[in-house]
Amino acid sequence: MNSFVGDILGNVNGNSFEKVELACNLCEHWANIFNYENSATQMAFHDETTARRVCFWLRIYIISILNSYENIYFRMELIIRRELNVLISDEFHAGLNNHGMFQKLTLLYLSVLGFCSKNVALDSVDFLMKYLSVKVSSDGVHLEHSPAYHYIIGAQYYNNLKIISEVSRQNASDISNILKNMGRYAVDILMPNGEMPPIGDTSQTKPANNFPIFFGIDKLKVAQRKWSVFKDAGYAIFKSDIEYPSNCTYSYFSAGHHGEYHKHADDLSLIIYRKGWIICESGPYGYEYSNMKTQMAYSNIGHNNVIFNKNLLTNRSQGVGAVSILRNEEFIDFYRIEGENHRNKEGVHIRRVDYNKNGLEIKISDYLKVIKSVDFAFIWHTPLMPIIRVDGNDVVIDLEDKAKFEFYNSIDLNFRVIHGDEDPFYKSFFHKNMGLSEDCYGIIIEGKVDLEFTLNCSILIY
Asked: Is residue 14 part of a domain?
C-alpha cells in the first residue's frame, strides 16, 4: 500500500484534490480491512512497516491541511490516531534497533504535529540519541553489521536533525558529532567501483550519490585510504590502488560480533575482489528464514571460515563480543591483521592475514586450538572454477587465470570442491542482490585436530 500511496502523492501538483482523495480512499480501505486487534501477528502490523505506513498517511494529512481539503484532513486524522495507539504502546516497540528507530521517528513527527504530547517527542529524541550512541562503535561503524544500514541510519538522522534540534539542541549536537565520526567508514568501505560489498544484509549496489552530506564530509576532500582498521567494530579494509580503481585489489576482513540484527556468521571471513570476485561469500538472499538459501547466507557455511564437527552457526547463535581484532600492524611491504573467534564451543580460531601492498599476494595463517579431538573444515567460496593439484607436500588450487591458492605442507588434508547445493551439508551460492542467486564453487579443506593445528596458505593474484 505504501508504494501505491507514494506513487499517487509523487504526482501531486497544483489542483490535485482527486489524487489526494484517491490516496485517502486507499488508506481508509486498508484500515477497514486490517486492525491491530485482529491482525497483530500479520505483516500488516510489522513494527517498522507500521511506522513507515503512518509516515505516508501523514503526507496525505499535511497536503490536505496545506490545500484546505477539510474532509480529507478529518478522515486521515481518524485513522492516524488509531495507528498512534499502536505505535505508542511499549509492547509494540521493537527495541534498540533500526526498526525501533523508525518507530520513534514517527512518534516524533506525530508529537510535533500535535497528535500527542511534547513528552512523547522528548522520549523519542532521547531514544534516538541512545540508539545511535549504543549502535555505533567508538570508531564510527554502525553495529548492525551491514554497510547498507550504515548509510540508511546516516540519512535518517541527517534528514531529521532540524526537527530533533527543535526538541533538544544538545542531543542534535551530539548526534551531529556521531554522524561525522561515521564518515570515514562510509568512504572506506566502498569497493573500487563505488559499490557496497555484499556482506551482511547489503546488496552490491552504490549508496546514494549524496551520502557524504549525511556524515558532514566533502567527498572531494576525503580521500580513500589503502588500509583502514576499525578495531572497536572489528573490521579491516584493504585497497591496493586508490588512484587507479581498475587495478585495485579490494579485501574486507570481518572480526566483530556485536549482535544479531542483519549480522551474518562471517567470523574471521574475508572477501577478495580485483576486476571481479576472486573470493566471495554468500551475500544477502532475503528475510524468509525458512528458505534454505536464506539460512545458508546467514550461517557460517556461507562464509570463508572454519566449521567444527559440521556445527552450524547462525547470526542468532551465541557469541556477542566473542570475535575481535587482536592486532593490526604495518610493515614495509605489507599490512597485517589478526583476529580471534571464540564463538565455536569446540575451540578457538585465530586468523592472521598479511596483505602485500602491491595487492598481488595475500598470506593467511589459520590457527586452531581445541579442548578435545574434533573434525574441522575450512571453506572458501569463489565464482571461479577451482582445479586442485599436488606439488610435493603442498596443495595448489588454480582459480582459472585470475589467482591461485598455495596450501603449504597440507598433503595430509582432504581437499575437495563442491558446486551450488550438490553437497548434502556444505553449500556455495553468491547473492549479489536480495533474491538473486548464483551457484558458486566451495573449496572444502577437511581434517582432524587433537589439540592445536596451523594451516598456512598464500593467495597469488594475477
From this structure: no
Which CATH number covers residue 234?
A: 2.70.98.70
At 282-319, the pLDDT tens digits run 999 988 888 899 999 999 999 999 999 999 887 666 77
Q: How many CB atoms lie within 10 A of CB 308?
A: 19
Residue 420, class by beta-carbon neighbours within 10 Å (0-12 exposed, 13-18 middle, 19+ buried)? Answer: middle
Does residue 370 lie within any of the structural domains? yes
Residue 217 resides in a domain: no
Count up the domains in the chain and report the number. 1
Q: What residues pair up with 441 in beta bridges, in sequence order?
A: 382, 419
The closest alpha carbon to 367, from 328, 338, 388, 387, belongs to 338
* Among candidate residues 206, 209, 146, 216, the one with its CA nearest the CA of residue 181: 216
Q: DSSP letter at 136?
A: B
Question: What distance in Å separates the CA atoms of residue 44 and residue 54, rounded to the nearest whole number?
Answer: 12
The whole-model pTM stands at 0.93
Find out whether 305 and 269 touch, Cβ atoms under 8 Å: yes
Full residue range of the structural domain in which residue 268 is found: 227-462
> Edge-to-edge strands of the sheet including 235-239?
227-230, 235-239, 250-254, 270-273, 277-279
User: DSSP strand E in 245-360: where?
Assistant: 250-254, 270-273, 277-279, 306-308, 323-330, 334-341, 347-356
Hey, CA dihedral for 27, 28, 29, 30, is it positive or negative? positive
User: How do residues 168-205 score in pLDDT, each as one tens digit?
Assistant: 999 999 999 999 999 999 999 999 999 999 999 999 99
Would you tell me the crossing angle of helices 70-87 and 47-66 to the nearest 10 degrees? 160
Amino acid at 175: I
Partners of 415 in beta bridges? 445
User: Rounded distance, CA 92 to CA 50, Å?
Assistant: 10
**Do the domain assignments include residue 214?**
no
